[in-house]
Write a structure and sequence with these properties.
239 residues; alpha+beta; three-stranded antiparallel β-sheet; two-stranded antiparallel ribbon; 8 helices; 11% strand; elongated
């Protein structure tokens, strides 16, 4: 006795898509900018894998969904409704554009940050984060294209400069150069190369740079960011 085939899902009367497609589209839309993976679709809808694949192909053909790669794990594909933009978890964060690290933007912001520290050095020997942020905040276009940088973005730029050994991150003791800052407050100063010719003290390169890396969450052996391609890690090995 032959097995009875599962009947083809009937098209819904409203939008020209069948029930499987309707359920999958509803799930994808509920995930907004994060989208949904095929595993999530199968788990949530209990639809057979072959029918999930068929439904996704139909929804893409109807331009109701789009396929977006996960920059943290390129082996996983996420499907988003066309009305949503992918979240930072998928795109890799603020420093990526079209799936690639925006090196020119990062380097430009690092140069601006160094100039700010040089200006602040004329008044104080060290600069607090709030003082650096205040300069960026004055110009809402500091991030390029009229973009206003967040506090977290500026912290990441400063951390990159620390990894480059251009800036030192030091904790205030409230004395001498730190008399204008609170005890324990994190401050920044240029190293000898940029700070008036003084001998540069041991900075972040005295420790494995991974601990201060703002992209550590994106670093995987086979990922876009990995130890094998990281220039900071290589510099540390050669230090």
């Amino acid at each position: 006795m032959s097995k009875r085939k599962r009947p083809e899902p009937k098209s819904s009367s409203g939008g020209g898509i069948n029930e499987d497609e309707k359920n999958i589209l509803g799930l994808i839309r509920s995930k907004q900018g994060k989208g949904a993976t095929t595993f999530e679709m199968r788990s949530a809808t209990k639809i057979q894998p072959t029918l999930v694949t068929r439904a996704l192909a139909s929804l893409k053909k109807s331009k109701l969904i789009k396929e977006v790669p996960n920059m943290n794990n390129k082996g996983i594909k996420h499907f988003l409704a066309v009305e949503f933009e992918p979240c930072k978890e998928l795109t890799g964060g603020d420093w990526y554009i079209d799936g690639a690290l925006d090196v020119s933007k990062i380097e430009g912001l690092k140069e601006i940050c160094v100039r700010i520290l040089e200006m602040l050095k004329r008044k104080e020997k060290v600069a607090t984060f709030d003082a650096v942020y205040a300069y960026f905040d004055k110009d809402s276009g500091s991030g390029g294209d009229g973009e206003k940088l967040s506090r977290e973005q500026i912290k990441e730029i400063l951390k990159n400069l620390v990894l480059d050994n251009v800036v030192m991150e030091v904790k205030s003791n409230g004395l001498s150069d730190f008399s204008a800052t609170r005890i324990g407050e994190i401050c920044y100063k240029l190293t000898g190369k940029k700070g008036g010719g003084a001998e540069a003290r041991d900075g972040a390169f005295a420790l494995v740079p991974c601990g201060a890396c703002p992209h550590i969450g994106l670093c995987t052996p086979d990922g876009v960011i990995s130890p094998s391609t990281c220039v900071y890690f290589q510099k540390w090995l050669d230090f």
